[in-house]
Backbone:
């Protein structure tokens, strides 16, 4: 594993105390942190700033999807908070993504701007029900291409999609992958999983890992084990 931390720990906690109980055992040289909707709605920008002040890169995973003006303003606000990465739904369209890009480019601090393609929780039937009669993998590629052409820095995708997306969209297009499980750990509700080293070998740039670390009896050891496994 390269020296830059590739693991982003999903802080899927309900409150600040349990979040900090974990974070205070971690080091910014070993991992980055992801704050999603639940933690953000409960603890807000104050906690995000606390994490940044502790030296961590924070991925603000709020998946913005709204009219272009609103998403641009939200991205600007995220940039002002000092986060390292922020995301928007690529299905919000070219104009929405371009507005988000412009808002971030105008900000003093410029987080990576990442698109969400098709949520991995959606099946072929689920997307057909909302009017998309297409294979999810084809729609992922279409939206990832649109995201790249609209100026985004990369997309969130499943580890299985990484090699095709790198091949089609170029090595510099950043791929962030959840659905990662160290060998021997429970898949939980994740459907198509890969081990961290398999995901990195396929070309994933950053691995989002939650429960295999946060629910481990010794989270720091679990993180170190994953880093060791990736270095082999
Ligand atoms: O605990 P686990 O490793 O499954 O956590 C994965 C994290 O990645 C969660 O915060 C989840 O919301 C997020 N995520 C995901 N699948 C996506 C996008 C985000 O699991 N397609």
Residues:
């Amino acid at each position: 594993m390269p020296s830059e931390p590739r693991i982003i720990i999903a802080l899927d906690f309900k409150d600040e105390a349990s979040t900090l109980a974990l974070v205070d055992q971690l080091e910014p040289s070993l991992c980055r942190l992801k704050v999603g909707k639940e933690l953000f709605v409960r603890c807000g920008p104050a906690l995000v700033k606390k994490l940044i002040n502790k030296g961590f890169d924070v991925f603000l995973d709020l998946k913005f999807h709204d009219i272009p003006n609103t998403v641009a303003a939200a991205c600007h606000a995220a940039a002002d908070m000092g986060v390292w990465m922020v995301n928007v739904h690529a299905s919000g369209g070219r104009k929405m993504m371009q507005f988000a890009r412009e808002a971030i480019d105008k900000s003093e601090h410029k987080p990576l701007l990442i698109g969400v393609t098709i949520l991995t929780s959606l099946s072929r039937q689920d997307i057909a029900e909302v009017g998309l009669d297409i294979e999810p993998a084809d729609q992922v590629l279409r939206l990832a291409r649109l995201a790249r052409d609209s100026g985004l820095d990369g997309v969130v995708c499943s580890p299985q999609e990484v090699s095709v997306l790198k091949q089609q969209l170029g090595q510099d297009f950043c791929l962030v992958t959840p659905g990662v499980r160290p060998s021997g750990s429970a898949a939980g509700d994740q459907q198509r999983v890969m081990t961290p080293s398999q995901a990195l070998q396929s070309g994933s740039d950053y691995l989002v890992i939650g429960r295999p670390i946060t629910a481990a009896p010794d989270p720091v050891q679990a993180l170190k084990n994953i880093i060791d496994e990736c270095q082999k």
Q: What stands out?
A: The mean pLDDT is 94. Residues 37-53 form the longest helix (17 residues). The beta strands are 7-10, 32-35, 58-64, 85-89, 112-116, 154-156, 174-177, 206-209.
